[in-house]
């Protein structure tokens, strides 16, 4: 008998999302995008464009930053995520690695890893063990430092730990906020490889990066945010060839000078 086809895996749908901070500051306006099952989508944009805000809205952490969704919808498969808390997102399979490698500095590497996936309920020791082994396969350096305080790790090792902690929750969609920020080129290269491997194992990725070259080399699809709005969207390879992206985000000379000649998209 032929095997039945796999059940349709969920995808992330962000539809016409509006977000504000406080009473006045509109951080996102009518932002729509999707991340398909198993895909890698990159979000590019200057400082303050709203990239982290979008990830926070999806992961349910927006309220911790005093932000609020004021319009639109977010769903992951059949699960509505707008207005939910981080535990609901983690249970749905959506986990964020926040910007700035927020590890618990006073806890050991092992304790940090064990804190990943809290909110999933009591998990069997075998499951936790399997999670740690998966993390150590990606990051052997962490295996050598299980009892070391996370605050004493190098910047690159802390980023590994932050990603490892998220992996402990076995995400189906990983939200990565600036994983290369402040890291040496060799470490940036390793992080990019790991993102590729995590994706190859079936986890979709929504990647926010200032390093546009890295992001576009990893992503299938990309969006450019400018002051809270999506200005340009398309397949990553095509976006990388547009004048606007080459000039503004890849630092290349293109012969055009106007910042917003990007139009509304290449696809
Ligand atoms: N907690 C907050 N309270 C008030 N305003 C905020 C808060 N967080 C972000 N903002 C504002 O919302 C807008 C979008 O910020 P956001 O951090 O999402 O941008 P970003 O594209 O991720 O930029 P960066 O690369 O600098 O992190 C900016 O104008 C920022 O000043």
UniProtKB/TrEMBL annotation:
An annotated GO BP:
L-amino acid transport
For this UniProt entry, the molecular function terms from Gene Ontology, in alphabetical order, are:
ATP binding; ATP hydrolysis activity; branched-chain amino acid transmembrane transporter activity
Listed Pfam families: ABC_tran
Matching entries from SUPFAM superfamilies are given as:
P-loop containing nucleoside triphosphate hydrolases (SSF52540)
This protein's source sits in the domain of life called Bacteria
Which parts of the sequence belong to the ABC transporter domain? 12-252
Q: Which family does it belong to?
A: Belongs to the ABC transporter superfamily.
In Swiss-Prot or TrEMBL terms, this protein is called Branched-chain amino acid ABC transporter ATP-binding protein
Species source reads Streptomyces resistomycificus
